[in-house]
Amino acid sequence: MERKDVDIVKKMQYxxxxxxVLNKNAFFSDGxxxxxTPAEPREGETVTIRFRTQKNxxxxxxxxxxxxxxxxxxxxxxxxxxxxxxxxxxxxxxSRYHFEIIYGSLTCYYNTQGVRMEYEERMDFExxxxxxxxxxxxxxxxxxxYIDRFYNGDKSNDVETGEYFYIGDVSTKVDNWEKTPAxxxxxxxxxxxxxxxxxxxxxxxxLGVEVLYLNPAFVSPSNHKYDCQDYDYIDPHYGKIVEDCDxxxxxxxxxxxxxxxxxxxxxxxxNLEASNELFAKLVEEVHKRGMRVxxxxxxxxxxxxxxxxxxxxxxxNQEGYPKGAYISADSPYRxxxxxxxxxxxxxxxxxxGWWTHDTLPKLNYEASxxxxxYILKVGKxxxxxxxxxxxxxxxxxxDLGHSNEFNHQFWKDFRRAVKEANPEAIILAEHYGNPEGWxxxxxxxxxxxxxxxxxPITWFLTGMEKHSDEYREDLYGNSEAFIGAMRTHMRSLHxxxxxxxxxxxxxxxxxxxxxxxxxxxxxxxxxxxxxASQGINPAVMREAVVIQxxxxxxxxxxxGDEAGVCGFTDPDNRRTYxxxxxxxxxxxxxxxxxxxxxxxxxxRKGSLDFLWNDYQGLSYGRFSDCEQMIVVLNNLAEDRExxxxxxxxxxSRLEDTVxxxxxxxxxxxxxxxxxxxxxxxxxxxxxxxxxxxxxxxHKDEKECE
Length: 705
Fold this sequence. Notes:
- By secondary structure, this protein is of the alpha+beta class.
- Helix content is 23%, strand content 23%.
- The strands form 8 sheets. It has an 8-stranded parallel β-sheet with strand order 22-21-20-19-16-11-24-23. Strands 25, 26, 27, 29, 30, 31 and 33 form a 7-stranded antiparallel β-sheet that branches. Strands 3, 4, 7, 8, 9 and 10 form a 6-stranded antiparallel β-sheet that branches.
- The longest helix has 20 residues, at 269-288.
- The protein starts with a helix and ends with a helix.
């Protein structure tokens, strides 16, 4: 029997069996605007909730919301599906709901994890009244810049060798841009700065970037700048130095009170104001291009160089600066920190350090309303004119304060302060673990997406832990584990946070994803920098980028990933961008995938459903009422034939449907050459190359009118 005849028989069997078999795979609902309108309701608004089943397949569907059962009505039938609807009025508190489906004597349930035979309250859908995240951030293409390693646009502001002393040695100016970072390279500087970003805005715009996320830019003695020295000013080494002097430390001198050049550079208000002005110019130029900027806010702790602490005695004798808390018991900043011994002044070293690091004094908000209010003002200052930043990324946000209750109160107040100044600002937190407690609509908007993106993808495609510290054969290619992790952790984000979540493959805290494709456990301290580039598989990286650019959320490229940069976990992941020596194929591929991501609205707003999976294989669909995108991945080395039931995305089972291939990746590269596939009976058959991915697309023009 020919394939055509087989398809006809299958179609007839489907029609005959429409009512005789409960088709649980046809059940679907989520929190996107097609299944919940409005998707982000406010108190008092009427919300329409929809649920999909196969046509004529069930006896009844009930919406169970906050314990109340409402029988849903069929309000639309299309492409072999019945769509049930019911309405609720949004109250002042969270509403939780699931669906009960009646089929003869059988009752089953549908929640965030799909179909269940038993009710699980903790897996209900949730709606938080007034939980709105900025529309511009939903699906926005972000680009993370570690400023010192991106591009040196102004050599006159470079940190000099011997300019000051920090953590065991003097600062070092690196003259060789291609040098790999030292194992203890916290005081190594390559010269990247704000002018460098300005100089490369054409590149970033051509790449397709919509949002720049900058690692910390405020005054600080390290290249990572998570040890803030002054929250009010951009570091002149990143900005502008208009007043300078001689005064490097003499050989063997460890006293920063003698670091006259450094003191002038970072305390002279003319340098500080000029640097802030340059930053304002950068943001203005970015905005002119239709792009946005997010700053890194490190508010749990500061640095030992901080003007409030002044352990290094940078500010002790500078006009206009009160004595730091380390210097004097009478310092106005004494209560900003928790000192264990109140009899040690002057020069009291007994303050509480974050994770006991004396270079990272823990900020003691509970003891000082002045500090509390000051940081709220900092939050407002940078999202307001003349800087007009578009949001904050919050470092170790769950650690702030000394209790969970205090932490939540602070972030509630921080949100109010920031949103009053700039309602469109995003508040995006670094967090490991379940973030639900902060994602109720009155604290954070969203998070860096480790649990529901970086980690599951890394385990599935490479078998590696995100630091390259562990390899697990049981998770490598384990699509069931991938799907389970995604469903579980995506539920924790709710829809508003999920569609703005920062989806990264690499960043400044973890190994480069391209390095993870070699499936080698290692750190630069014992494996050496060269090992990070050995045995890598760029084709697997391309698979990951396909997922990144077609997944719900904000795909975030870590500078240099698009150019093929490798590296173990920090500091090796902080290598410089290889200007003029990029992997052009990887760069072009990123450019193409970013273009694809931005071109198809269904990626930014559409639903997600898993369609097929097995060992080293996965397919999922992104879809709305009139668009379908099908992604199929083969992470085996050899090609294979795959059959995917695409009808679950809304493609008809009764009519042949043409899907266009818009991207194909394979071991040696990729192609955007268009070709077509025909879905017969709602099923598409295709050959997927080894270490390859296929992206298919269909749009019903009439439905989209």
